[in-house]
Amino acid sequence: MGKTTEMNDRPEPTDPNRRQFLAAAAGVSATVVAPGVILQSVAAAPRSEPVTSEVRWGLLIDTAKCADGCSECVKACDRENGLDLQAMPEGADDALWDNQKVVWIRKVKLQDNQTGRITNLPMMCQHCEHPPCVDVCPTGASFKRADGIVMVDRHTCIGCRYCMMACPYKARSFVHLPIEGQLTRVPRGKGCVESCNLCVHRRDYGEESTACADACAEAGHGAILFGDLADPESTIRKRLSEMASRQIREDLALNTGVRYSGI
Question: Does the first or last residue of the chain, that is N or C, have fewer Cβ atoms within 10 Å of its Cβ?
Answer without folding.
Answer: N
